[in-house]
Backbone:
């Protein structure tokens, strides 16, 4: 399966080659267009920065205080229903807020149980199946200046829960 | 919504920190997280600018338009309210393509552009339109086919077969996306029906 990793090494260079090659063939002023696009990208990042600072401070406080562990303690009856090992609940919860924090927890599980254990495999699959809910919502809605998000959170939770349950069932069936 | 959530995170975190005697850690976490956000943004600046620059070139030479044509039937089913030739079609298509390829940092700028266009289509209202909700739900449900980073971590931690989870991960991703799409289309129909009454 090294092939997959091998292929993914080629994805970005291939995209660049294709775009620039096509640009030259169609006689597009590629460099000027690149600069124009890069300026837009910088504007987008600068506008995200305040959001990112606010959110990461919130998550940082929540994590350092031990509040996340308390939350997963309260939720442990739920994890039993879905036969999710209780050590995976913090991963699922943290993933809703921050994917880099969830990656840290994933690596903890790999160290503790090994990547080929049941928790190791399940955590890998769960993290592959969904994106960060609150971070994505904050960034997207703030960029659009939207305050009332309506049913977005409900839909995101439905997708996340479906992905998590599917991960548990598939992991049990396949491995 | 975000105000309450954010407020809760900080207030609850500080209260728990006081009771756990972690209050020094809490202050450090606040300071370090704010620094981390800036560091993240600085490294993101280069990558984002590089990608949006490339996308601008791709757009100018007609590549994005041809991808958009390919994805148009899918976009039309998911976002029935968008005018046919609107520029937002291109942004959604690029956002989806980048997501499928696992280029999350490339998907975000296109997604944000799409959100701005949706805002204009929605007459600048501060309430989310159905299209915005659908776009967000699809993005959160993850379209990424190959979780390259997870495979890399697994091999780093000595897995015998790091890519062993690949097929299971693809199925799980499809199920989460399907659930999200079903929810979004159902919610859109319910909203429309209520408006007609």
Residues:
């Amino acid at each position: 399966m090294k092939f997959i990793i091998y292929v993914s090494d080629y994805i970005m260079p291939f995209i660049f080659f294709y775009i620039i090659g096509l640009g030259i063939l169609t006689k597009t002023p590629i460099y000027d267009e690149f600069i124009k696009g890069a300026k837009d990208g910088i504007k987008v990042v600068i506008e995200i920065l305040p959001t990112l600072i606010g959110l990461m401070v919130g998550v940082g406080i929540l994590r350092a205080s031990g509040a996340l562990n308390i939350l997963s303690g309260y939720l442990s009856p739920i994890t039993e229903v879905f036969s999710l090992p209780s050590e995976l609940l913090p991963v699922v919860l943290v993933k809703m807020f921050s994917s880099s924090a969830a990656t840290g927890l994933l690596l903890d599980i790999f160290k503790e149980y090994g990547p080929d254990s049941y928790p190791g495999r399940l955590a890998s699959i769960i993290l592959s199946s969904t994106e960060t809910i609150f971070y994505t919502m904050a960034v997207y809605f703030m960029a659009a200046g939207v305050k009332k998000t309506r049913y977005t959170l409900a839909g995101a939770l439905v997708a996340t829960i479906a992905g998590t349950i599917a991960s548990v069932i598939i992991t049990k069936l396949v491995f | 919504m975000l105000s309450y959530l954010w407020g809760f995170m900080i207030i609850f975190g500080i209260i728990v920190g006081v009771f756990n005697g972690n209050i020094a850690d809490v202050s450090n976490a606040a300071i370090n997280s704010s620094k981390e956000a800036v560091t993240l943004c600085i490294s993101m600046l280069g990558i984002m600018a590089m990608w949006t620059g490339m996308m601008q070139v791709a757009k100018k030479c007609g590549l994005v338009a041809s991808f958009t044509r390919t994805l148009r039937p899918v976009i039309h089913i998911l976002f029935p309210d968008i005018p046919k030739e609107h520029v937002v079609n291109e942004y959604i298509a690029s956002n989806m393509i980048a997501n499928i390829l696992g280029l999350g940092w490339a998907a975000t700028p296109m997604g944000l552009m799409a959100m701005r266009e949706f805002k204009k289509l929605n007459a600048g209202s501060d309430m989310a339109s159905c299209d915005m909700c659908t776009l967000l739900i699809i993005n959160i449900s993850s379209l990424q086919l190959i979780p390259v980073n997870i495979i890399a971590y697994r091999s780093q931690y000595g897995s015998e077969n790091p890519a062993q989870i690949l097929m299971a991960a693809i199925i799980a991703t499809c199920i989460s996306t399907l659930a999200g799409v079903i929810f979004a289309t159902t919610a859109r129909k319910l909203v429309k029906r209520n408006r007609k009454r």
